[in-house]
Amino acid sequence: MGTWNAVAVVLAGALVVSLAAQTGSRERAASPLDNPDGTRRGLVPVTSAADRAAAVGLIKGLRVAGMGPKNGYRRERFGENWADAASAVPYSRNGCDTRNDLLARDGDDVRYRAGSRCVVVEMTLEDPYTGRTIRWRKADADRIQVDHVVPLSYEWRMGASRWSRAKRLRIANDPLNLLPVYGPVNEAKGGSGPAAWLPPSRRIRCAYVVRFAQVALKYDLPVTRADKSHMLAQCR
Question: Cα 184 from chain centroid?
């Protein structure tokens, strides 16, 4: 084989690898309708008429209840922060804490601490809530935060105060309920439901409320009437 032919083969091989990596990255992102266990990364918009109709049908299945008081709520009621101790949810008891599992799930160009298979120290995130690309390093940890799609304080007020500790631990560490996002946006959301807060990116709002509904349905958690109405409006 001549020199130029050899170079061409190498370049073609590199292109195939590059395209495969890009395709793999795209394939890992998913619509919530295609990601019922939360093990695929991020959110992609729900756009087709059929998918939006399916989203509306899912949301219609939510129970409605009034919101209770926040009395007695503390983060510790849902277990140690990001503990790898939950049972019966993906990634549980795998030796890595929940936050690092989620960073690895959703990040591109992920780098780990030397000698660790768990601790993410650098990555790039396509933030689903704003659409911005964030280059993140552990030294600036709060720039990316892992959001509970259904906030823990919301869960508490909608009935989780009466759950077992084990069930609260599951919902707090279930990847279906967790998304790495741009930190300041997560802080602005706080404990709000969809009637009071939606992602800044309008194109992702139907996907967001579908994920909210999936979590609520999985854990038999009601939502307020106002939240259900706002959720339906995002997908119609």
Answer: 16
